[in-house]
Amino acid sequence: MVAADYFLAGLVAILAGLDRVALVQIMISRPLVAGPLTGWLLGNPLTGLEVGMLLELLWLGRLPVGAAIPPDDTQVAVGATVLTLTVGPLLGLKGMPFIILAVLVAIPLGKFGQVFDRLARHANDRLAISGADALHTGHTGQLERCHLLGLVSFAMASLTTYFVIVLVGSFILYNVAPLLIGAVREAGLSLQYSLVLVGAASLLGTINVNRSISLFCAAFSGTLLVLWLR
Length: 230
Description:
Elements: H1 3-21, H2 31-41, H3 45-55, H4 73-91, H5 96-109, H6 111-137, H7 140-187, H8 189-205, H9 212-229
Helix pairs in contact: 1-2, 1-4, 1-7, 2-3, 2-4, 3-4, 3-5, 4-5, 4-7, 5-7, 6-7, 8-9
């Protein structure tokens, strides 16, 4: 994988990161979209789709709205896709077991997204004060610059999170993937569907309905039925 591929993935990280909170919000920031988009640019959209499917439900009920800052699932999806397509070939590993391992490594690193997002918001709080002063004095050009700098803050937070996931994740995978890939293969579909079930349980836990337990049981039974049919 050449440097241009890392650059393309970085562009996806910025674009999807801005869509997450600061710009347009057309939902390309969702893992189910960001993963395949990254994989498509890197020549393997199916891998990105598999990453997105594993991650989509985990933080779907925790959106970055107002003061809420959840882990950056967007960059986890982008980073896990890049890790799968870069580290895997170098180690001679591929397929769903390695995708699961890359996702499990990337998930905790998504916590860094909270840190960088919070820093970006603090910087934008100061820009908001400067923008208000510019508005009161009639300096509209300064107000526009403050707005653009606010977008840059979020873009840099997304890009930094992406680089942390890729760099730290690559180091971890190089050292632990050969040791753990056998255990992941043995776990097989149970580990794969566990991520989906955990995501479904987390999502149902945020739904304010009286029948959440019934919904969870129905989803769990449906998953077992799918496994039985396979």
